[in-house]
């Protein structure tokens, strides 16, 4: 939902593209958005239902996006950054950011196949960094060396070690720890893919409905299972790491990633709760980017009327559950019937 050329929305009654309608009615964006984003809608809004895991990837910041577009427009089709937020609609699983360093060290030390593709010297260096040994590299630098070694390992060696690990873990699959069980799941979907090893480096996120994770520049992430709302800057720039047959840009990926280690809870994004009119619950997901914010409005049981707050920018409204008649002064007396899946574009003000 939005105006990106790879999937632009259309106005249902006229079949006019939303991009064309906005260009003819630029005031609909609001003066601040019109000025800052040169008359363009600055965000995309998506609904994802993930059954097979989507690729492990990261998105460049604005400066790197511009450089990548200049250098390789075939793979990086625009020059914009792509911060994004995923808000769970159902029980939802994903990967987000590097695990706490101690967890990564444990996986490297106890998983022989992973150690073989990363390299013993790199593993030793990382463990020393985690323990704060004198003269050791910083944790972030050593982690970058380990992850780069994994991504640069010959594909045949990766496939061989993945098959070995899968065979070993399958002998007692039910009693394996969570990371090993996740490995077995992903190996069934992407046998031989280096991304199956990457999960030992990344946090396994489990979100309840309404919980969210914000994916800032250079943060490695993936969506594994479940339904979510995704909002992002208007871009398609993606640098992939694995769980995909698509193009993987290893040098760019390894140089750009944010190698800070965080916990699962630190990678969750907590919305601000606001009381809405008539007892509605309003959750505001407002990350530190100018391109978008998301409001989740849930009406109280039996509540029959709700007035959306005025905002000074254009909005896209998605009905997730329930049904209603929507009225607006610009529509006159004729309501729009909305039900699950109905999408409305709302002008500023």
Itemize the secondary structure elements and their pairings.
Blueprint: H1 18-24, H2 31-36, E1 43-50, E2 56-58, H3 62-71, E3 84-88, E4 92-98, H4 101-110, H5 112-118, H6 120-130, H7 139-152, H8 155-170, H9 178-189, H10 195-198, E5 202-207, E6 212-215, E7 221-233, E8 239-242, H11 250-256, H12 264-267, E9 268-269, E10 272-275, E11 281-285, E12 294-298, E13 315-318, E14 323-326, E15 336-339, E16 343-346
Antiparallel strand pairs: 1-7, 2-8, 3-6, 3-7, 4-5, 4-7, 6-9, 10-11, 11-12, 13-16, 14-15
Helix pairs in contact: 4-5, 4-6, 5-8, 6-7, 7-11, 8-9
Q: Which residue ranges are poorly predicted, with pLDDT under 50 across at least 5 consecutive positions?
A: none
Mean pLDDT across all amino acids? 92
Q: Compute the number of helices.
A: 12
Major sheet attributes: 7 strands, antiparallel
* Termini separation: 20 Å
Tag the structure with descriptive keywords.
single chain, 349 residues, alpha+beta, seven-stranded antiparallel sheet, 16 strands, elongated
Protein model, in words:
The longest helix is centred in the middle third of the chain and has 16 residues. α4 crosses α5 and α6 runs antiparallel to α7. Strands 1, 3, 4, 5, 6, 7 and 9 form a 7-stranded antiparallel sheet that branches. The protein has 349 residues and is of the alpha+beta class. β11 and β12 form a beta hairpin. The chain is elongated and about 70 Å long. 31% of the residues lie in helices and 23% in strands. It contains 12 helices and 16 strands.
């Amino acid at each position: 939902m939005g105006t990106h050329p790879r999937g632009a929305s259309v106005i249902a009654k006229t079949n006019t593209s939303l991009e064309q309608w906005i260009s003819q009615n630029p005031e609909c964006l609001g003066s601040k958005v019109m000025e800052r984003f040169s008359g363009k809608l600055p965000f995309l809004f998506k609904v994802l239902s993930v059954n097979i895991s989507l690729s492990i990837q990261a998105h460049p910041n604005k400066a790197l996006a511009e450089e990548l577009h200049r250098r390789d427009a075939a793979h990086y089709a625009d020059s914009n950054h792509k911060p994004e937020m995923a808000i769970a609609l159902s029980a939802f699983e994903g990967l987000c950011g590097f695990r706490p360093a101690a967890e990564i060290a444990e996986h490297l030390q106890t998983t022989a196949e992973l150690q073989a593709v990363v390299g013993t010297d790199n593993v030793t260096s990382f463990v020393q960094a985690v323990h704060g040994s004198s003269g050791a590299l910083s944790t972030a630098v050593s982690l970058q060396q380990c992850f780069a070694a994994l991504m640069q390992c010959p594909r045949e060696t990766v496939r061989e070690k993945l098959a070995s690990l899968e065979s070993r873990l399958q002998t007692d699959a039910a009693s394996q720890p969570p990371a090993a069980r996740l490995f077995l799941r992903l190996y069934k979907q992407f046998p031989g893919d280096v991304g199956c090893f990457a999960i030992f480096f990344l946090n396994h996120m489990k979100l309840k409905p309404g919980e969210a994770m914000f994916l800032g520049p250079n943060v490695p992430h993936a969506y594994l299972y479940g339904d979510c709302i995704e909002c992002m800057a208007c871009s398609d720039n993606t640098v992939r790491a694995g769980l995909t047959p698509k193009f993987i840009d290893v040098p760019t990926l390894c140089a750009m990633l944010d190698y800070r280690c965080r916990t699962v809870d630190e990678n969750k994004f907590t919305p601000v709760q606001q009381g809405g009119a008539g007892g509605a619950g309003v959750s505001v997901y407002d990350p530190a980017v100018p391109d978008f914010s998301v409001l989740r409005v849930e009406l109280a049981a039996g509540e029959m009327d709700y007035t959306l707050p005025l905002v000074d920018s254009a909005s896209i409204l998605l009905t997730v559950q329930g049904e209603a008649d929507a009225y607006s002064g610009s529509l006159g007396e004729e309501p729009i019937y909305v039900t699950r899946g109905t999408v409305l574009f709302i002008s500023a003000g």
